């Protein structure tokens, strides 16, 4: 598993299997579940997750909310809502960056030591990988530089090989 800096790690696999403090869910604004990684997380966390999510009254694009991990090996799930690339082209980059920033802020608030991100918005929401990866990496690097005392370990958890390869290429070049 390649490490690209002390705090950045790239993995290929299923995020629901990771036993880290926080995994991030690429949710929709209802927070009531869906397809992709959201469906996998709800399936693996069990029905208590939907009950907890209902009490959160949704989540706006770019924002983040937290629940316990329930049946997952992860302690917490941070639910964030990426932008639909086609609807929001102008603001999409800012909203995607906000997803990463707000998730990191919330993880730090909960004293998390590790956080694993899927490639938010790059599946059903159609955000091109080539644009989403630099936003993810640069936003996270900036946050880590601004919060040196937090010692947060960040994992990019890529489900498919294409996503993994694209991250690897970018990280090898720029980190
Ligand atoms: N572990 C890690 N990554 C995964 C997993 C997994 N188990 N399953 C899929 N991915 P997507 P979005 C990757 O579509 O684009 C849902 O219906 C996937 O290969 O899950 O933000 C929500 O409810 C891709 O690289 O999320 C929303 O309606 C990445 O996760 C909508 O989809 C994101 O793909 C959100 O769309």
From TrEMBL:
Residue spans crossing the bilayer: none
Matches recorded under Pfam families: Macro
Entries under SUPFAM superfamilies matching the protein: Macro domain-like
Family annotation (InterPro entries): Macro_dom (IPR002589), Macro_dom-like (IPR043472)
Chain ranges of the Macro domain: 1-175
Protein name: RNase III regulator YmdB
Organism: Liquorilactobacillus ghanensis DSM 18630
Superkingdom as given in the UniProt entry: Bacteria
């Amino acid at each position: 598993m390649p490490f690209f800096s002390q705090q950045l790690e790239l993995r290929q696999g299923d995020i629901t299997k990771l036993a880290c403090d926080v995994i991030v869910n690429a949710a929709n604004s209802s927070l009531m579940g869906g397809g992709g990684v959201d469906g996998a997380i709800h399936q693996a966390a069990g029905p208590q997750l939907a009950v907890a999510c209902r009490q959160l009254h949704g989540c706006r694009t770019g924002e983040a909310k937290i629940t316990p991990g329930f049946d997952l090996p992860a302690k917490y799930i941070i639910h964030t809502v990426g932008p639909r690339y086609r609807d929001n082209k102008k603001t999409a980059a800012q909203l995607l960056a906000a997803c990463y920033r707000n998730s990191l802020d919330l993880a730090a608030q909960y004293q998390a030591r590790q956080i694993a991100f899927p490639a938010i918005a790059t599946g059903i929401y159609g955000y091109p990988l080539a644009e989403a990866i630099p936003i993810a990496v640069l936003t996270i690097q900036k946050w880590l530089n601004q919060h040196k005392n937090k010692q947060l370990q960040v994992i990019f958890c890529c489900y498919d090989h294409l996503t993994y390869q694209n991250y690897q290429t970018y990280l090898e070049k720029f980190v």
